[in-house]
Amino acid sequence: MGRFQSLHAKHKNMNIVKLSLPIFALTLLAAWSLPSEMDAPEDTAPIQKTGQVGLGIGDTAPELAFESPDGKILKLSSLRGKIVLIDFWASWCGPCRRENPNVVSAYDKYSKAKFKNAKGFEIFSVSLDKSKDRWVAAIAQDDLHWPYHVSDLGGWQSEPASIYSVRSIPHSVLLDADGTIIAQNLRGQNLHLTLDDLVKSF
Questions:
Q1: Per residue in 31-61, pLDDT tens?
Q2: What burial letters (b/e) apply to 89-126, b meaning 16+ CB within 10 Å?
Q3: What is the C-alpha separation between 98 and 103, in angstroms, rounded?
Q4: How many CA atoms lie within 13 A of 72 on its CB side?
Q5: CA–CA separation, 138 vs 133, rounded Å?
Q6: CB 91 within 8 A of CB 137
Q7: For residue 96, which of 39, 41, 92, 170 is within the disulfide window of CB 3.0 to 4.6 Å?
């Protein structure tokens, strides 16, 4: 009788093992199929603000105060509270002119958006032109229809280029509502994707 019970128990245990193996395999397969917390994209780390005026990520952007085409002094600091794209360009710069449609598209899209931590979006264009006529003509030709355009008509020796250590154009700097630098040299789709992360709704 004891031997029979032992054989019965052994047979029962083998059935349990046989049943357990498929269940284990399915569980393992499910674990591989479902995204884990480690696979999930991490939230972008917040920018560490330095509180210092400078040109690095987290620094407060240096002030710019220069003349518009109509002779009015426009200050970068007047745009505090908004997300601001500082865009260095020139009428004679081929890559700048080819990028301008993308910048216009971004302005049209994000100037109407509601941002998480800002009152809106603006572009502060800084030209490295030497000819006012060519500068103004390029603004019209490329339909750069935002109001903030400045230049001291100094070309590569211009003061704005010196302040921001601009060595090539197009060159862009993205600021948060506090005037802190949060990104640089955003072009094409990267500009839109970066701004998308800051938007609450359209």
A1: 333 333 333 333 456 889 999 999 999 999 9
A2: bbbbbeebbebbebbbebbeebeebebeebebbbbbbb
A3: 10
A4: 7
A5: 9
A6: yes
A7: 170
pLDDT for 144 beyond 50: yes
d(CA 123, CA 23): 59
Q: What number of helices (H) and strands (E) belong to the chain?
A: 5, 9
CA 155 to chain centre: 28
> 């601009």: which residue's tokens?
166
Distance in angstroms (rounded) separating the CA atoms of residues 82 and 121: 5
Categorise residue 95: left if φ over 0, alpha if ψ from -120 to 50, beta otherwise.
Answer: alpha
Residue carrying structure tokens 């049209």? 108
The conformation of residue 60, written as its DSSP 8-state character, comes to B
Cα 114 to Cα 201: distance, rounded to the nearest angstrom: 5
Q: How far apart (Å, rounded) are the C-alpha atoms in residues 107 and 122?
A: 7
- Report CA torsion sign: 20, 21, 24, 25: negative
Contact between 179 and 105 under an 8 Å Cβ cutoff? The reply is no
pLDDT in tens, 53-111: 999 999 999 999 999 999 999 999 999 999 999 999 999 999 999 999 999 999 999 99
